[in-house]
Amino acid sequence: MQNTLLLSEAKLKRFTDINNVLDPDLLRSTIREAQIIHLTRLLGTKLYDRIIDDVDTGTIGGKYKTLLDDYIHDVLLYFSYYEALEAIYLRPRNNGLLQPQGGDNALSVDMQMYDKKRTSVKNKAEYFAERLVSYLCFNNNLFPEYGTETNDDIYPDSSVQFKSPIVFRRTIREDIERMGIKIVNSRYKYLPQ
């Protein structure tokens, strides 16, 4: 089991609207979940393990420190918050999901407001995930571990999270390109098609 956290619960509280008196153990577990579920998916096993090892040994520096500070922390901040929302605002009890109000007081959860809040946080997390993946794709020569997974490793997911509502079938795309209209993947405008 992995115990190294790449984000502190203090930073998570400081940069979100999470109450300062919330139990740090609750946040530590959601940071760990976000690292394992979301960050491993974005970085792939090899790069993720390299960063964890460097943080554990205190040797993280250079391009890996830049990656961690400028990209990974933002992704982890919002995915941790996203994972924490359920534990913070919803508590399963015998009479259904309740929203704690302090002490023994609790209210029924307004699921519409809860869903709206989670969607907002997830959109921010996906935005920062896009930035991270774009940075890694554009600078893949800086990180030799990126995309070198084997066997049971988790391969990095570089798919676009925010997709265009217009999707062309291959035959239509070929017809459009034959007419001289260039179709470019908006994510990688700088790469040849």
Structure characterization notes:
By secondary structure, this protein is mostly helical. It has one domain (9-159). The chain contains six helices and three strands. Strands 1-2-3 form a three-stranded antiparallel sheet. Strand 2 (96-100) and strand 3 form a beta hairpin. The longest helix has 28 residues, at 62-89. It starts with 8 loop residues before the first helix and ends in a 15-residue tail after the last helix. The model is unreliable at 188-193 (pLDDT under 50).
Task: Supply database-style keywords.
about 190 residues; mainly alpha; 3-stranded antiparallel beta sheet; 6 helices; about 55% helix; globular; disordered C terminus
Compact description:
This protein has helices at 9-14, 24-43, 45-57, 62-89, 111-138, 170-178; strands at residues 91-93, 96-100, 106-108. It is mainly α and 193 residues long.
Structural class: mainly alpha
Count the beta strands: 3
Widest sheet: strand ordering: 1-2-3
Shape: globular
Classify the helix fraction into a percent range: 40-55%
Low-confidence stretches: 188-193
Subunit arrangement of the protein: single chain
Task: Compute the number of helices.
Answer: 6
Mean pLDDT score? 79
* Main sheet specs: 3 strands, antiparallel
Ends apart, CA distance between termini:
42 Å
Radius of gyration: 20 Å
SSE ordering? HHHHEEEHH
Beta-strand proportion: 5-15%
Number of domains: 1
Any chance you could write out the topology, listing elements then pairs?
Blueprint: H1 9-14, H2 24-43, H3 45-57, H4 62-89, E1 91-93, E2 96-100, E3 106-108, H5 111-138, H6 170-178
Antiparallel strand pairs: 1-2, 2-3
Helix pairs in contact: 2-3, 2-4, 4-5
